[in-house]
Amino acid sequence: MNRAKYPVELPPSIGNAARKLAQEDGVSLSQWVSIAVAQKISSIETAEAFFERKAQGADRIDALKILKEAPDCAPDPGDELDVA
Q1: What is the pLDDT of residue 64?
Q2: Does 1 have pLDDT greater than 70?
Q3: For 67-78, what is the mean pLDDT?
Q4: Where are the domains of the chain?
Q5: 10 near 28, Cβ under 8 Å?
Q6: Given pLDDT bands bounded at 50, 70 and 90, which one contains residue 22?
Q7: At what angle do helices 29-55 and 12-25 cross, to 10 degrees?
Q8: What is the C-alpha to C-alpha distance for residues 84 and 81, in angstroms, rounded to an integer?
Q9: What is the spatial distance between Cα 10 and Cα 28, in angstroms, rounded to a whole number?
């Protein structure tokens, strides 16, 4: 298997936590980070596939109709958009 090196800078707190978890798992930090990156990629690709399936057969006109029926009110606290 070919491997490439990717220099990554982590904040000390994340680096220390990763080092500790790698040690607990009995693997090198490099192996632990590789697995963590693979898991993140897998979760994103899975989410992307999920939303693509959900979007199949979606009707834009129906979606706009639903949005027009939504009440015109302020968002719940914490749901506001930062439009700076």
Answers
A1: 92
A2: no
A3: 90
A4: 12-69
A5: no
A6: very high
A7: 100
A8: 9
A9: 16
